[in-house]
Design brief:
This protein has five helices and five strands. The chain is an alpha/beta fold. The protein has a single domain, classed as Rossmann fold (3-Layer(aba) Sandwich), CATH 3.40.50.620. The longest helix is centred in the middle third of the chain and has 30 residues. The two termini are 31 Å apart.
């Protein structure tokens, strides 16, 4: 089923398993709607103002790794799901950059995120665990377009099969 939709579904990718599942869900949704797929990665660059050369090299390394990861994800989705995603790499605060992308591109009709991301995976403090994740909760308050939050136990059948390897097996 392909419609002549010209909208874009934007996925926030941070390298976490949950963001990969969100990409798989968004790819399948974009294909079924005839929409474009955008992958947005916000660089996590530490501020080392007292070591400018080190900071510059770190930024370059972090950007190169992000480009490599997004190129691999994009190629996988293109090959298996038959949809060619665009990707964007920006620096800043993730919530602000997603909002900026939506504000600057009127074609973005929806944002898709995983329930939790790298911050959730790295920390185990109970106060940081929320049903939607801190990132998604913040986005839900500020976005002018729908936000779809993909749970970590999403059914494999709902994903582009290229990303199904990130899905948790369901217990019987």
């Amino acid at each position: 089923m392909t419609n002549a939709t010209t909208g874009t579904i934007l996925v926030a990718i941070d390298g976490s398993k949950n963001s990969m599942l969100a990409a798989g869900f968004a790819a399948r949704l974009a294909k079924s709607l005839g929409a474009h797929l955008g992958l947005l990665h916000v660089l996590d660059v530490p501020v080392l103002s007292f070591w400018a050369n080190v900071e510059l090299r770190m930024k370059d390394d972090i950007r190169a790794q992000a480009e490599k990861t997004l190129t691999e994800i994009s190629a996988k989705i293109s090959e298996v799901c038959e949809i060619v995603p665009e990707f964007y790499i920006v620096e800043g605060v993730p919530e602000e950059e997603v909002l900026r992308a939506v504000a600057e591109d009127s074609r973005i009709m929806m944002v898709v995120t995983g329930r939790g991301g790298l911050a959730t995976e790295k920390r185990s403090h109970p106060k940081l665990r929320r049903a939607t994740g801190r990132f998604s909760a913040k986005l839900s308050e500020i976005l002018p377009v729908p936000l779809l939050i993909v749970p970590p136990d999403v059914e494999k059948a709902l994903l582009c099969s290229a990303m199904a390897e990130f899905s948790l097996p369901r217990e019987a």
